[in-house]
Amino acid sequence: MNLTPGVQIVSIEHIKVGERCRKDVGDLEGLAASIRDVGLLHPIGIKCDGTLIYGGRRLAAAKLNGDAEIMANVLDLSDGVRQENDENELRKDLLPSEKAAIAKALKAKYGDRRKVSGETRDPGNCPDRKEIPKGKETRQVIAVQAGFSSTREMERVEKVVNQGTEELIDAMDKGEISPSGAAKVAEAPPAKQRAAVEKVKAGKSRTASNGRATAKSLESASKEAHDWFGKLIRYADKIVAGRVEFESMRKAFQDRLQKAKDQLVALEMACK
């Protein structure tokens, strides 16, 4: 089997599941139902020879549904080293654990260029060494090709994948916990890892609830302010109207007062 790189429909029976994939796929019923209802939202990843790189749960769920074919991203891991500014959209969509699976496949492909006891390992053990630019560390090139921003991020994600529980890995993939935070949690026993994940989820739930409550309070305050502003406008209108009426009455009074003064002067003149 020699597939052309790219997204395509692949026969499930031709996909080879190797040691790199997780053995515990967990409960598949929900995922299988989702695939039946809305289809496969994220393709699995395989090599050109059909070896599975990532998406083991999706593949297992498709098999559970009795599907004969599945959408897959076929990755040519024999390509030369990509430039560091590669903006391949495929890799942007990969989950952290999927990037770690690609990094693991690349490590097996490139071998180990590090020195052992002062001697470089036999190039024959590293058939793809020529693809690593001179002066570059193998892990740096692997991090770039797998889609990581740095070797440090790659190492953190690998730590989570290798030492973390399924719950912790899933939380990292969903963005509920950062790779750096998940790597620290992965150092704890499984029970404490699960407790930490539940605590983070509960905290996010409370934050979301508080956010909704705050939004509701702001909406209520905004409505109250709008009502008071309306009342203020109406009160101001009454004041203006009352001032106009007062000015009119004052002018009329002054006119009548002046008329009375004129009449009084005329009466005094007549009496003389």
Short description:
The chain is an alpha+beta fold and 272 residues long. It is 58% helix and 9% strand. Among the domains are: 76 residues, Conserved hypothetical protein from pyrococcus furiosus pfu- 392566-001, ParB domain; 110 residues, no CATH class.
Describe the fold and architecture.
- This protein has 272 residues and is an alpha+beta fold.
- Among the domains are: 1-76, Conserved hypothetical protein from pyrococcus furiosus pfu- 392566-001, ParB domain (Alpha-Beta Complex); 78-187, no CATH class.
- The protein has helices spanning 29-38, 56-64, 89-92, 96-110, 138-146, 151-163, 166-173, 179-185, 190-271, and strands at residues 6-11, 44-47, 52-54, 69-75, 115-116, 119-120.
- The strands form two sheets. A four-stranded mixed β-sheet has the order 1-4-2-3, sandwiched between helices. Strands 5-6 form a two-stranded antiparallel sheet.
- β5 and β6 (119-120) form a beta hairpin.
- α4 (96-110) packs across α5 (138-146) and α6 crosses α8.
